[in-house]
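Quick one, tokens below. Sequence please?
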């Protein structure tokens, strides 16, 4: 058990039978009435974000999340196969479990699997990945005074706004948290 007064960003907790990670929290002490903690929590099972308010000093269950290194192997229809790097056990996750992550996954890529008491909740990607541009319009010379950007499609199907000097077959560094261009690799 953990007190809500000890909340930290990234802490995983169990509330009402669901597993949440703390995205944001604020201790509030109004002039009249009891103190409370206002928090923003992300459900690790379905990805929904909720706002919850707890009384100051209230205790809730702490969820111990396990992270293991795995390798993404291949896609087969709606299923995506992974292999544990230590035990070589293979398992699959559905396309619904990997909505955002599929924008960045390439075959043979190493990621971390997130599980709670044997239940696989999803995967954690590295903060940035290298992806090859497969389609983009040519840049127009003299159009750079305002830091103009253009659309580029990378090998995983993700569309990213990039500077005009980026061409097809360039390898880019893409931020996996926001899906934005960082630099050329």
């Amino acid at each position: 058990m953990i007190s809500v007064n000890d909340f930290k960003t990234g802490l995983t907790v169990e509330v009402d039978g669901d597993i949440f990670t703390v995205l944001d929290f604020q201790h509030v002490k109004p002039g009249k009435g009891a103190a409370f903690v206002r928090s923003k929590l992300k459900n690790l099972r379905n990805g929904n974000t909720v706002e919850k308010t707890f009384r100051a000093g209230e205790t809730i269950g702490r969820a111990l999340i396990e992270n293991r290194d795995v390798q993404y192997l291949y896609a087969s229809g709606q299923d995506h196969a992974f292999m544990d790097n230590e035990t070589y056990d293979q398992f699959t996750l559905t396309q619904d479990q990997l909505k955002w992550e599929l924008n960045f996954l390439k075959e043979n890529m190493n990621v971390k699997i997130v599980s709670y008491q044997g239940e696989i909740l999803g995967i954690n990607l590295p903060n940035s990945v290298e992806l090859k541009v497969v389609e983009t319009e040519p840049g127009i010379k003299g159009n750079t005074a305002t830091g103009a950007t253009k659309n580029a499609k990378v090998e995983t199907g993700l569309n990213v706004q990039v500077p005009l000097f980026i061409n097809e077959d360039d390898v880019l560094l893409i931020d996996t948290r926001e899906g934005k261009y960082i630099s050329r690799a």
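Residues 7 and 25 are 7 Å apart (CA to CA). The chain has a mean pLDDT of 88.
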